Amino acid sequence: MTEAGVHGVSRAPSGMPTRSLRDRFGAVIPGTPISAVEKSVATRDVDCQVSSGYRARLYDAEWNRLVHVTASDAATLSRARTDMPEVTDRLRSDVASLQR
Is 9 exposed, middle or buried (0-12, 13-18, 19+ CB in 10 A)? Predict the structure, then answer.
């Protein structure tokens, strides 16, 4: 991105936006207009992430993590009790109090 005239960028996509870019473009406040220069920097950043393969590797890493978490959660949940009289009693009590 430096060769495109965009300075103050991070060496890794995960470091974007850098403090200097945040300072340059200001706070991110919902409803604040986005400048053409800011759009251009963001577009170049995404293009760089895609062309370098970063986006695909990030997606694969996130997918693999979710598969692992889902499998470990399933194992934990399958060992959990399904009969919880204390919870059932509390829910019945709460519902009854709302119906009064």
Answer: buried
Rounded to whole angstroms, the Cα distance separating 50 from 45 reads: 9
The CA distance from 78 to 67, in Å, is: 16
Residues in the chain: 100
- Closest among 29, 45, 94 to 37, alpha carbons compared: 45
pLDDT tens per residue across span 80-91? 878 888 999 999
pTM over 0.85: no
Amino acid letter for position 28: V
Nearby residues of 56 by Cβ (< 8 Å), 6 or more positions away: 50
Cβ of 41: how many Cβ atoms within 10 Å? 22
Q: What is the pLDDT of residues 27-68, one digit of tens each?
A: 667 777 888 888 888 898 899 899 999 999 999 999 998 888
**Under 8 Å between Cβ of 16 and 1:** no
